[in-house]
Amino acid sequence: MEKSIIFFDLDGTLLNDDKQVNDSTREAIAALKEQGHIVAIATGRAPFFFEHIRKELNIDTYVSYNGSYVVLEGEVVFTNPLNEKALQTLTDLALENDHAIVYMDHEDMRANVPNSDRINESIGTLQVNIMPTHDPLYYKDRFIYQSLLFCAEGEEKPYESLLHAFDFIRWHPFSVDVLPAGGSKFKGIGKITEKLGIPAERQFAFGDALNDLEMLKGIQNSVAMGNGLSEAKEAAKWITTSNNEDGIAHGLKLAGLL
Fold it and tell me: In the chain, which residues have pLDDT < 50?
């Protein structure tokens, strides 16, 4: 069998609802590697939010921050930081609206406020046991690859109309990802597949959420999880079972990889 590359989203996809890797998923990934395929991650998470998963599954190729920080075999091959001037404007607006912000680089994260229930609740759902400390100037003089804006649904609209340098993607009732405009997992994946020279017909992707849509549409061999949003299922070539019901193993069989 010719070598393929398979990109897995994490939350709701590679991870079950307890944020763990199912035994069937672990076995499926081991089988892919035994066949000579490349297993990679494509996530909105920061690199330090899934280091333990990379170690557990022995994965060293990944697209993080929804395409803004891309690593191939342990080496950074592409970065796309947030526009510094627009980030300053975002910071000023958030302070006026009493909205918390978290600034994230490739190694750490800091919040613009000392305490926030919305930060604690939303980041807590990731079960990463890491919380940002307080540093309101963390965004200055460093590359920030993603910010989190903490606001209720709909409250991001004024930011969207003013800050065209950014895309805002909601991932939690209290939080939206702030990303470089036009960035996506799909574009980050392209940085890897171009370097490896793997053709489109041997590229595969699994996802479930809004930040997976471009990836699921752009990768011709795409699989949406049974627990995924309807938009993800419409975008994908195949629909597998849920992340709690051996969805990865089943999806790899649908795609002819297992």
Answer: none
